[in-house]
């Protein structure tokens, strides 16, 4: 079965926010659909949603409705006025785990597509185009970045102008 299309998070399996898991039933649709959402889920009432929802119920908004959950905290996004964009990001897009509260980067008046975590190796490889965005952090800091250990960079790409965006954090 094809995974649902989420434009702001185009490949959540590659980023680790969705994992293959044949045994885990989804708390929302009660079906074992082969994949589980591993990213953050913010809900005042339900605190155990991460690892318990299928990506289909995330993408169609049913998990957000049923559990009054959001998958990304859009409260820190200041330069997007269109509530439809924030709604899609918070309620119908898989979020991602970061060391600190995650920041969804924006460009051209829209949320950007999240491409994944990067360390120095990835920034010299598949995400080389994102390196200029991190230049203000300095060469030494960039060289110390790691994909799985901190500090880590998070890479995005604008859906409109194609520019790569990135930021880095650590605990
Ligand atoms: Zn489900
Ligand atoms: Zn742009």
- Give the CA-CA distance, first to last residue: 37 Å
The helix content, as a percent range, equals 10-25%
Strand order of the largest sheet: 7-8-9
Q: Please state the average pLDDT score.
A: 96
Unreliable parts: none
Q: Structural class from helices and strands?
A: alpha+beta
Coarse shape: globular
Question: What about the largest sheet?
Answer: 3 strands, antiparallel
Quaternary form:
single chain
Please tally the helical runs, counting DSSP H or I stretches of 4 or more residues.
7
Number of domains: 2
Overall description:
By secondary structure, the protein is an alpha+beta fold. The chain folds into two domains: 12-70, no CATH class; 98-169, no CATH class. Helix content is 23%, strand content 20%. It has helices spanning 12-15, 55-59, 62-67, 83-92, 120-123, 131-134, 139-144, and strands at residues 18-21, 34-37, 42-43, 69-70, 106-107, 110-111, 113-118, 152-157, 164-169. The strands form four sheets. The protein has a three-stranded antiparallel sheet with strand order 7-8-9. Strands 1-2 form a two-stranded antiparallel sheet. The chain starts with 11 loop residues before the first helix and ends with a strand. 39% of the residues are buried. It binds zinc ion (2 copies). One zinc ion binds next to helix 2.
Keywords:
single chain; 171 residues; alpha+beta; three-stranded antiparallel sheet; globular; binds zinc ion
């Amino acid at each position: 079965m094809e995974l649902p299309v989420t434009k702001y998070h185009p490949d959540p399996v590659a980023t680790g926010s969705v994992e293959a898991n044949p045994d885990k039933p989804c708390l929302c649709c009660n079906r074992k659909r082969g994949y589980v959402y591993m990213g953050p889920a913010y809900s005042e009432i339900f605190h155990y949603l991460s690892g318990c929802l299928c990506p289909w119920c995330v993408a169609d908004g049913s998990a957000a409705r049923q559990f009054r959950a959001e998958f990304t905290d859009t409260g820190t996004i200041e330069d997007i006025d269109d509530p439809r964009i924030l709604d899609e990001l918070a309620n119908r897009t898989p979020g991602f785990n970061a060391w600190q509260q995650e920041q969804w980067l924006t460009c051209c008046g829209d949320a950007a597509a999240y491409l994944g975590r990067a360390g120095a190796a990835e920034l010299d490889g598949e995400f080389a185009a994102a390196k200029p965005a991190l230049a203000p952090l300095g060469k030494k800091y960039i060289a110390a970045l790691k994909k799985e250990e901190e500090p880590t960079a998070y890479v995005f790409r604008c859906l409109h102008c194609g520019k790569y965006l990135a930021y880095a954090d650590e605990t």
